Amino acid sequence: MAADIAEQPAGYERLLSAEHAGAIARVAAAVAERRPRHVVFTARGTSDHAALYAAYLTEIRLGLPAGLASPSAITLFGARPDLSDALVVGVSQSGGSPDLTEVLRTARASGALTLAVTNAPDSPLARAAELSVDIAAGHERAVAATKTYTAELLALLMLVEGIRAGDGALPAEERAALAELPELAARTLADATATQLAPRYRFAAQLVTTGRGYAYPTAREAALKLMETSYLPALAFSGADLLHGPLAMTDPDVPVLAVVGSGPGGRSMGEVLPRLGERRADVVVVGSADVAGPPGSPCPTSTSGTPRCWTSCRCSGWPWPWRWPGARTRTPRAG
């Protein structure tokens, strides 16, 4: 898994190369020519979170209604929705999910334009679709997807922006910004902040993740990764939904991982972080370098210019998590 994570910068360079960027541009131009009226994504697991990110992009950048389909509606219940004006996108790292393949076959039979986004261009999913995008992440060793998730995000971003351009070609400003991504990823991976913070939470019994807008799908993905790699119960909430009830379960014994990006979604988290602070929740904020931590107790722990993290309780006066008077007993996790 560590090896997969370390390969992300090289994967971004490969995906942004003339060969792969050109292939995505051709697919984007073909989609733009068909002028779909709405977009339906279908995926499972980690790829479901990438699809959710793409749904945000589609509605915000293209102005088209977008949503995530439930594969079981077709595969278990035999539903045959009218998708004649839709673009139906199957997102799958392996491209081998039979239910997603069946969704694309059914959608194509109903007149939809179908597209597969996968790391396996010769997979059943890619063969079932009219168009396909290769995320070019290379072989992934671990079952827990890492580099394929971020490659899906980048490929879907390039696809949506190419559709928006009409001819598939990204504007020069966007190409220049994306060209910086491999170096930024390498600097982020070289930053020791996350490694330094990780031991702090080995006594945690559960955890909450949160974010809004483009960051919310990655907050959900973080919860999935915590569950499948650390066997730690983790619940993911939109920052807006967190304030409507679930906030009541946060306290000093429930760490919160907040994924806070720049832009409107990140700014809106400015309403969430103070509320978590009021409950004395142990908050780690992960975001770009200009993102503020919880008011009153921000602790920037990275000075390298990369995305950085804060943990609110580091400033609270307690020497270590789960060790203040009256804290409930926690059992350390192995490793």
Automatic annotation (TrEMBL):
Which Gene Ontology BP annotations are present? carbohydrate derivative metabolic process
InterPro entries reported for this sequence: GlmS/AgaS_SIS, GlmS/FrlB_SIS, SIS_dom, SIS_dom_sf
Q: Which SUPFAM superfamilies match?
A: SIS domain
Q: Which GO terms describe its molecular function?
A: carbohydrate derivative binding
Cited Pfam families: SIS
Domain called SIS: residue spans? 27-169, 197-335
Keywords for this protein? Repeat
The molecule here is called Glutamine--fructose-6-phosphate transaminase
**Species per Swiss-Prot/TrEMBL record:** Micromonospora olivasterospora
